[in-house]
Design brief:
Layout: E1 8-9, E2 19-20, H1 29-34, H2 36-47, H3 62-72, H4 76-90, H5 96-120
Antiparallel strand pairs: 1-2
């Protein structure tokens, strides 16, 4: 990887080495990441997180709200099985939009999982 600037991100998966940002458009990197939509996608992808609140629906797309509503009624066991299934799928090669949808679903399910565990205590 050459050129300037070099953008790297660090998380549990990348460890201390980090990983390089992969551009998604032909725009200059400063223009691409200067676009709020692309910056938000980058933060969500690199951080394996989502701005979507499964509890309130704030920050969620209609698709995420529908998914969250469906899974709010499921048992903790079902949620944990789905998390495991999606974690297994995450490592497979697929189109970026499908990988993003898996990450979004995982973020929602993990919120529901934490909430269910707290309610059990």
């Amino acid at each position: 990887m050459g050129g300037w600037p070099t953008i790297k991100y660090f998380n549990k998966d990348t460890g201390y080495e980090g990983a390089h940002y992969k551009k998604k458009t032909p725009k200059a990197m400063c223009d691409e990441l200067g676009d709020n939509e692309y910056m938000q996608q980058y933060v969500e992808e690199a951080g394996h997180t989502s701005l979507c609140s499964a509890e309130t629906g704030g920050g969620c797309s209609e698709k995420e709200i529908k998914y969250s509503t469906t899974w709010k009624t499921k048992s903790l066991g079902d949620i944990k099985k789905q998390i495991s299934r999606l974690e297994g799928m995450k490592a497979k090669k697929m189109k970026e939009n499908l990988k993003k949808w898996i990450s979004q679903r995982l973020a929602i399910l993990k919120q529901l999982d934490r909430k269910a565990v707290k309610e059990e205590l």
